[in-house]
Amino acid sequence: MNIFQLLLLAVIQGLTEFLPVSSSGHLALCQEFLGMKSPDGATLEVFLHGGTLISVLIFYRAKLLTLCQGLWKREKASWLYCVALVLSCLPAMVVYKLAGDKIEESFTSVILIASCLIVTGAILLSQQLLPSSSLSSSQPMTWWRALLTGTAQAVAMLPGISRSGSTITAARWLGLGGAEAMEFSFLMSIPILAGGIILKIGKACQEGMDGLNPFGVILAAAVAAIIGFLALKLLKLLQFRGKLQYFGYYCLALGLLSLTLKLVL
What we know:
Layout: H1 3-18, H2 23-33, H3 42-59, H4 61-72, H5 76-105, H6 110-125, H7 143-155, H8 163-173, H9 178-187, H10 189-207, H11 214-240, H12 245-264
């Protein structure tokens, strides 16, 4: 891969990892229709995911610091919130353990990916049906809300289902306000991103750079972090203004277009 290809992948990774449009779905469709190869090997994947993990840590640094201080001081609210974050990761861990191979095989099915993008669009547009009272109030994150939000995250392991879109929408329907739902969605992504890196890091160490330009890979990770941070800023702004339906329309259009192209060509 040349530096241009690395940077293009970094931009796609940074944007689609956080915006509710499904990063896995976009990478698979780019490979199918544009001939763009998805990252080969674990090394590049580890660096790109590392970049997006850094962007989340920086974006929510104040909340993370508050939680750490609360844990140190044994504050009940901080401990309960962290327990909720742990519980939210359990459904995805169970699903991956039971059906991880099947899920990875599904990444080659363009029809499934296109269909899942249509589902993502419908999920996002469902927020327009929320009662108006939900705009001015927010329920606390409880253990059962965490598990249900985590179930949405597990479903989002399918290519084309947006992790952020499904978890934010689930949290909103469970009574959380927009800002609280977005915050919990991305805080619960930290263990998932970190877990993915840990699963791949052993293989990455064995591969080494494997012909990749070291400078280009590091630059790509930095670009993924910067683009990811900006994507989070944009998503927060649109969530605040109640404009996530734009992403819903986009996912519907992309899913229908991809389905049509696959069936016709």
